[in-house]
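User: Can you model how nicotinamide-adenine-dinucleotide sits in this protein?
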Amino acid sequence: MVFTKFLEKIALLARLSVKERKLLSTPDHVWKAVLTVNGKKYPAYRIQFNNARGPYKGGVRYHPEVTEEEVTDLAFWMTLKTAVADLPFGGGKGGVEVDPKELSGGELEELSRAYIRAFYKHLGPEVDIPAPDVYTTPQIMAWMRDEYEKLTGKAAPAVITGKPLENGGSKVRDIATALGGVYILEELLRQVSINTKTVAIQGFGNAGYNAAKFLHKQGYVVVAVSDSKGGIYKQEGIVPEKVWEIKEKEGRLGCYDVGTGSSINEIKKDGSCKIISNEDLLELPVDILIPAALGGVITKENAGNVKAKIILELANGPTTAEADEILHKKGILVIPDILANSGGVTVSYFEWVQNLRHESWDEKTVQEKLQKKITDAFRLLWKEFKKKDQSLRTTAYIFAIRKILEAEKNRGRI
Ligand code: NAD
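Assistant: Here's the modeled complex, given as structure tokens:
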């Protein structure tokens, strides 16, 4: 598991006792099931890592490479993330080993309902609150809430977040991860100045595409984006909405000409826009690199070639422990995932509060609350970071771990 390597390092720096280390390296519960849809079997997990600070909270991922180890890593990081973001939650995570692109709409619904049937006894508004993650959508959350309510016989909108608006979702939740990341980046650039603002983004889904749109709108030059099939690089910058249109039409990202809207191949000839691989994207000479797809993409093999000055980790766990050391030594400022992408869980928290209070907040209210909450969290960490010669990630981990251990101690568990 990747998280244990990080934890070993933090344990030494924070001088954790053996008991504290054991507590922080062991999930409270590991629930497993095999879901069957049309005769096919899909391994599924719900891992509840720690609830010292509040109910377990974390998304459900549908991906062919989901493993118990990966879900455990993500559940650990959720525990730290809710602590850093100062939300009254613990951490958990779910996953199903499935390629959702191979399922029909009906099969996807059946799989999502089967997930809830398998784990509903361990979920609940005050127990464990799932949410969307890679390849899970508001529609899937609506099916999951519905299945939970069928099984329990009670309305329970707060059992799951990331729902469609008509089903108890919150305004801004759909763009919250990207928006939160952008608020942090803006705050960071008030502390450190850079001359240009070129950006490369890996992943063109909820987190990556929305980040591209916000940054482009605010005058950043988004020079490269990618998805699972590869990416594009355009020195003068892309217009994210246009690239999205091409993806919709042609099934993959593609270059375009601003004037004529001409196709990928014609553009390739003049060299102003290139098709690049996901690996190329990480090593581009940009100011800001945003991994916004899968984990473990910045490794000890490629970290030495990363040229960005700032890395904003919208994806969960995109940097391995070894790579993190290399980046820190190179002076690259990495805004760690547990802070950078906490906008999603922050608005999930707002959604949960609205559901429990039977309220519905307007867009401006949610945006302002998000900006304040996430900027406050960043400023607190930045202050700590400036005091010591350690990375922002190490600072964030130690800060989160102290908060969790204090809650554990106050409860009398350690
Ligand atoms: P998404 O399903 O909307 O998009 C995922 C994107 O990644 C897609 O564009 C897909 O094509 C691309 N992708 C998949 N495999 C890839 C690969 N091998 N190389 C490059 N790109 C690849 O998912 P999302 O919600 O945008 O989540 C992206 C990341 O952000 C994940 O790590 C997720 O855990 C993290 N995150 C998301 C949220 C949220 O609210 N959406 C919150 C916190 C963290």
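A couple of observations from the model: The two ends are 24 Å apart (CA to CA). Residues 133-135, 177, 202-208, 226-228, 278, 292-294, 314-316, 341, 344 surround nicotinamide-adenine-dinucleotide (CB under 6 Å).
User: Helpful, thanks.
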